[in-house]
Amino acid sequence: MAGVGGWRLPAMVRLTLLWLAVCVACARGLYFHIGETEKRCFIEEIPDETMVIGNYRTQMWDKQKEVFLPSTPGLGMHVEVKDPDGKVVLSRQYGSEGRFTFTSHTPGDHQICLHSNSTRMALFAGGKLRVHLDIQVGEHANNYPEIAAKDKLTELQLRARQLLDQVEQIQKEQDYQRYREERFRLTSESTNQRVLWWSIAQTVILILTGIWQMRHLKSFFEAKKLV
Amino acid sequence: MPRWAAAAGRWGWRLPALLPEITFELPDNAKQRFYEDIAPGTACALEFQVITGGHYDVDCRLEDPDGKVLYKEMKTRYDNFTFTASKNGTYRFCFCNEFSTFTHKTMYFDFQVGEDPPLFPSENRVSALTQVESVSIHEALKSVTDYQTHVRLREAQGQSRAEDLNTRVAYWSVGEAFVLLVVSIGQVFLLKSFFSDKRTTTSRVGS
């Protein structure tokens, strides 16, 4: 980043500017609106031993000014994460801005639910919340500058580390794919077995009821002296 | 250790994910809206797929900050839409399941805004070797992950249909066996009831 006449900004200033730009980019994330008591759930289908980091930021709707307030202290969000078996992995209350992390121990659909339970919201009938949400899974959740600082890596080593993390995540996904294929095969086998046995069972029931009908009617008509 | 790394690590600098991919449940008769602030000139891509529910279709609409509809599709199962943001502001996209009366659907979408940020603050220090090889390997691995996501979504669809079929076969078989028994036994007793009333008339005919 060379300026006019070959003068270069000090490294710290460059980094500050870049960090500010990144923060602005962070503020431009995806967002949606929820009601005060509404619960919004998201599903993450992830393989085993995968880390998931979620960042969120909430803003409250101000009815008088008709604008979303930049930050509201005292506003709380409850985050609940359930694993594929329905067991609660994480259930915690965070502030208006927060970050939650969990690592999956079983592969499958994990459900992340967010809802606001701030008592202040009760004063504002029909209150609306704007929630900025950002969920990062697997190697996207790694903080590379921090890793570089901790392990003292050069740029090439850091790049190699990133590629290794990506490949590891691909490997985990492939293992999960194998598990899913087996589950699908079991379901199909079960359907196959059920169709087979129930067809046989119904044919047997049909034959037996037919025989019973004939015998019963025959004895009935004989009793009535019609046959 | 490079000074930039130490400084960035200290400040807990985190790279924003510019590819939010979200899977969520869309209840019947509902619409879900998402918003994103985009700078002009950014290349964006919206891709969505219905994973489970009903006929696996949904209405999708993407609007620019002035309300102009950039993309609108009714009852689509899967689509991929790329555009370049021409205006600065909040872009809205909405998934509607209002035509469905009782099936709630699970949907996946990913909305890519711009390019991935560089891993290092000063990319120009990287030599030609790392630039070409590591960036292109990174891009190739990203496309592998993308294909894996597609496979996973299709497999989820297949699994949900297989499970539906499995439960339907069970309920149908039990129901049919029950109906069979009831009808067979009922027929016999109904027939018996016909003959027990007209006993005198039939016996005269018979003799």
UniProtKB/TrEMBL annotation, chain A:
PANTHER family according to UniProt: TRANSMEMBRANE EMP24 DOMAIN-CONTAINING PROTEIN
Membrane topology: Single-pass type I membrane protein
InterPro entries (UniProt xref): Emp24-like, GOLD_dom
Major localisation: endoplasmic reticulum
Protein name: Transmembrane p24 trafficking protein 4
Domain GOLD, chain residue ranges per copy: 39-137
Membrane-spanning intervals of the chain: 195-214
Superkingdom of source: Eukaryota
Keyword NAD carried by entry: no
Organism of origin: Jaculus jaculus
GO cellular component: endoplasmic reticulum membrane
Keyword annotations of the record: Endoplasmic reticulum, Membrane, Signal, Transmembrane, Transmembrane helix
Protein family according to the UniProt entry: Belongs to the EMP24/GP25L family.
